[in-house]
Phenylalanine--tRNA ligase alpha subunit (Paenibacillus thermoaerophilus), 344 residues
Amino acid sequence: MKDKLLALKEEALAELARVETLQQLQELRVKYLGKKGPLTEILRGMGALSAEERPVIGQIANDVRGAIESGVAGLEERFRREENERRLAAETIDVTLPGRPAPQGAVHPLNKIIEEIEDIFLGMGYTVEEGPEVESDHYNFELLNLPKDHPARDMQDTFYITEETLLRTQTSPVQARTMQRRQGDVPIKIICPGKVYRRDDDDATHSHQFTQIEGLVVDRGIRMSDLKGTLLQFVREIFGPQTQIRLRPSFFPFTEPSAEVDVTCFKCGGHGCRICKHTGWIEILGCGMVHPRVLEMSGYDPKEYTGFAFGMGVERIAMLKYGIDDIRHLYQNDVRFLKQFARS
């Protein structure tokens, strides 16, 4: 048995000298030191030895195992070191090379306008409210003084999902939901930004989906002059301190009286140019005093409370402010177009 062990040691060490890869080394380890290896097989026969021979053979077996394990460990360390050296050589980084600039994104012009408008009204004590884009006919029309047979519904060509469910045509339903949630509490000072949908042919100035920001104020003693002062402050923050406004009578079912709001052309200062069609004025939004019926349907006594509301298209303001001539640029995700706003 002693001879077998010594022969096994010489055989294993000779084979170790021929190993060239980690895979071969692993196979050799299993071959000689595994449960089915020759060393284990020899040790199983130690039971037939005499009491005097067992410690001698056991010591030799341990020496053989130790020699093989030591050889395997040393070779494994060498292989791993060489592999690391090869990888480091292949992955060497030249720290003197100039860096590669990472492309930077820019805030989308619509988001820039929304954030700017929100900041303006937050500074005036307003809060921002949101609501669902899939809305009920009740909130989108009926609570805004637009019953089912109202002719003004034809002005908003609506995407209906069912007879009572639709894609909202305005963010005004958020106003109704807020008034109902407040249950008669005042003051209410909110703006409602969000997407709205109407069946329209897409062209340079129209889109079937666009963004609105509407505002609502409800309290005791709210007057038309409060509305005008609020809008004047807003347009001067957006278009510059010299901007003036004018209110032209108009009609909206949910406000009475109602008005369209024009601002002095920020390009020509009101003298007349191509942008304002030589009138000196540009229309930007609609507004009015909240209709008593709208207040009443949402739980506010119109004899005690009054309010005003306004609504604007974010795309229109973005196009005017940044000189964009086609609304479709805002939705086509052309990086060449969007990169222009990285510095603005």
